[in-house]
Structure formats: C-alpha cells, structure tokens
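Progress note, sequence design subtask.
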C-alpha cells in the first residue's frame, strides 16, 4: 500500500496508543432516481465497461478521486474505492457529470448510504494466531491456505483479519466511530491473551 497523504489515520490514545488504523475503502450505495441507458453510456464514455451477458451493471472508473462504480439501468449506483466521505461525494459528482454527457439529467440530490468501511493498520503487538484460534470464538484459521486469522467480533458487528505481526484489516463497519469502537473492542479482547 502506497503512502497517500489525504488518508484518514487514527492513532489510539491512552492504552490504545500503539493502534494505528487508516480507512482504505468505503463502499456506498445511492440512486440517481432516473433510468440510465447503459448501452449509450458504454458507447459514449471510454472509462466504462459493460457486458450485459455476464453482469447487468456498467462499471465506470473515475480517475480523481480514484474510485469505481457499478451503475444499473434503474439509476442505482454502488461506488467503491473512496478513502473518506469527501471522496465519496466527489465520485458521485463525477458520475453525475458523466451522466450529463449522455443527456441523463439527475434532478435529485443522491442520498448516500454507507454499506461497508474497510480499515487496515497495526495494533502494535505480536499475535500468536494458533492460541487465538483455539481461545477466541468465531474464528477461522487455516495457515496452510492463508496466513491470517479471520475473527468475527459480533459485539462490534465487525470482521477482522489478524496477522502474527500485529497487522489487522477491519471490515463490516459503517462509520469511522464504528471502526474506532471495533478496534477498541478488539484490542481489549486481545489484551486478555497477552
């Protein structure tokens, strides 16, 4: 992962001071509330892919901010790749501009719903994944197939990938505060096994 200066970086405080987490992907959905002629969009715009025999949505790739979106003929949109809500807003505005190029006028302010936030970082401690796999509930660990342990933390409605070097990936949250809460719960749980 490259260094990106505009990323959100959370550094823990107090007993969480060694926790560093950054949001690496926000997945949102919205509706343009108007039908979209996907064939026309694919024929007109070079940054699109559309293969209706394989999938009913059109993929549009946005250069700035670097995001991608699935657009459906109903006007529903799923956008991925943003690292903060400002990038989400800019990506949606770029989609609206692209639709205007094919004479599709969006007359509503799209209501954005966060579906998932993915964060990654480090919790500042080495982890014995074999011990965690035996002592924690809701884990999957098959080191022959993948070096990380999957841990579902139901209280936080989050799923983690844990690695022995202390690196973590958190998914399933829908806001920055949920990421923070999930990370605090994770560190509290892992401290029990130190």
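Output:
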């Amino acid at each position: 992962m490259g260094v990106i200066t505009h990323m959100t970086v959370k550094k823990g405080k107090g007993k969480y001071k060694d926790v560093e987490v950054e949001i690496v992907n926000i997945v949102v959905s919205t509706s343009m509330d108007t039908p979209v002629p996907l064939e026309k969009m694919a024929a007109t715009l070079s940054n699109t892919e559309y293969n209706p025999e394989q999938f009913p949505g059109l993929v549009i790739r946005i250069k700035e901010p670097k995001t991608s979106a699935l657009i459906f003929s109903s006007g529903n949109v799923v956008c991925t790749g943003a690292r903060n809500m400002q990038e989400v807003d800019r990506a949606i505005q770029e989609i609206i501009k692209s639709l205007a190029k094919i004479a599709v006028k969006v007359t509503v302010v799209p209501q954005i719903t966060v579906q998932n936030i993915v964060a990654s970082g480090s919790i500042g401690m080495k982890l014995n994944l074999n011990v965690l796999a035996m002592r924690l509930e809701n884990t999957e660990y098959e080191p022959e197939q993948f070096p990380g342990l999957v841990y579902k933390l139901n209280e936080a409605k989050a799923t983690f990938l844990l690695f022995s070097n202390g690196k973590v990936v958190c998914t399933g949250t829908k806001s920055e505060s949920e990421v923070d809460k999930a990370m605090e719960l994770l560190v509290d749980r892992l401290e029990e096994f130190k």
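Helices lie at 38-44, 85-101, 129-135, 176-191. Work on this subtask will continue into the next period as scheduled.
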